[in-house]
TrEMBL record:
This is ABC transporter. It holds the Pfam family DrrA1-3_C. InterPro entries: AAA+_ATPase (IPR003593), ABC_transporter-like_ATP-bd (IPR003439), DrrA1/2-like_C (IPR025302), P-loop_NTPase (IPR027417). GO terms for molecular function: ATP binding; ATP hydrolysis activity. Its EC number is 3.6.3.25. It comes from Bifidobacterium tsurumiense. It comes from the Bacteria.
Length: 323
């Protein structure tokens, strides 16, 4: 994990501090005593099903909407709708691409940068850096409609980072892009973080979150459910490894033996592939293989998969990830 910014007392400085946030839309409670702490220098994953309150929380942090009670501090200052000094230090890359079709790549980045940086000479250098950073040098004169989906996403990012924000919100930045573009975007996010930006990252792609996020918060119904590193979150769930074994001669008696094992949660067998969901344990795979051998069956190809972040998500929220 990268080094994070620390105070003289050795404590990590806070980029965002949200305490007891409550937001209602009529009878709907969108945020229910919601807490959030983001440290300076980290990539922080904010996860939840659609309707969980993620967007509401972000909009409250950015002072784009009012909330009923609680507090929001950014860089240890109260965040208000007129906190322009704080807002200049923040960048936003929305899920829906927000660029101007009538402007080309360079003009788009310059326009959004001008919202923060009025000096033309300074802005020219920042625009060039942002375009180079996302790899759009060859497309400077292209208008958005001529760009592929991946290039358009990169332009969206360039518009949000040109003013070099200290705090950056990235909302689903890799939706519907090809694997090459996704990899380029994720590598760019890690470089932004290495260059000093604190990043709040939302995504429905769990493998991305595991790859780049230092800590992850899972929320639902406007509440904080769980917080930790990817490994720490996986320790919170009861499920252990998922074992798959090719075997074509497993008898009903052998199947009963496996189902009755203390470590086994669930078993599926279609005549060729045995799938066993286990509790957490140190030697589940050896125990299942031993049971197969004792039943007289033959084991072929074997795989064992440890719990994933998606398993944690499903156990905590009971909901599949949805776009």
């Amino acid at each position: 994990m990268k080094a994070q910014q620390h105070t003289q007392t050795g404590q990590t400085e806070s980029a965002i501090s949200v305490q007891g946030l409550v937001k209602r839309y009529g009878e709907v409670l969108a945020l229910d005593d919601f807490d959030l702490q983001v440290r300076q220098g980290e990539i922080f994953g904010l996860l939840g099903p659609n309707g969980s309150g993620k967007s509401t929380a972000i909009n409250c942090i950015l002072a784009l909407i009012e909330y009923d009670s609680g507090s929001v501090r950014v860089f240890d200052k109260s965040m208000r709708s007129n906190s322009y000094d704080l807002k200049r230090r923040i960048g936003i890359v929305p899920q829906n691409v927000a660029v101007i079709d009538e402007l080309n790549v360079q003009e788009n980045v310059d326009y959004f940068c001008s919202l923060y940086v009025p000096q033309k000479q300074t802005r020219r250098e920042l625009v060039d850096e942002a375009i180079e950073f996302v790899g759009l040098e060859e497309f400077r004169k292209y208008r958005p409609k001529k760009l592929s989906g991946g290039l358009l996403r990169r332009l969206n990012i360039a518009c949000g980072i040109a003013h070099k924000p200290e705090l950056l919100f990235l909302d689903e930045p890799t939706v519907a892009v090809d694997p090459q573009s996704r990899n380029a975007i994720l590598e760019g996010i890690k470089r932004l973080n290495a260059n000093g930006s604190t990043i709040v990252y939302t995504s429905h792609y769990m493998e991305e979150v595991e790859q780049i996020c230092d800590r992850i918060l899972i929320m639902d119904h406007g509440r904080h459910l769980a917080l930790g590193t990817s490994d720490e979150l996986k320790q919170m769930v009861g499920a252990g490894e998922r074992i798959r074994i090719e075997t074509m001669d497993l008898s009903e008696q052998g199947l009963r033996i496996i189902r009755d094992m203390d470590c086994v949660i669930d078993v599926e067998y279609d005549g060729t592939l045995l799938q066993v969901q286990c509790k957490r344990g140190d030697h589940n795979l050896l125990d299942v293989l031993d049971a197969i051998n004792r039943s007289g069956a033959t084991a072929g190809h074997v795989t064992s998969q440890l719990p994933t972040l998606n398993d944690v998500f499903l156990e905590l929220t009971g909901k599949a990830l949805r776009d």
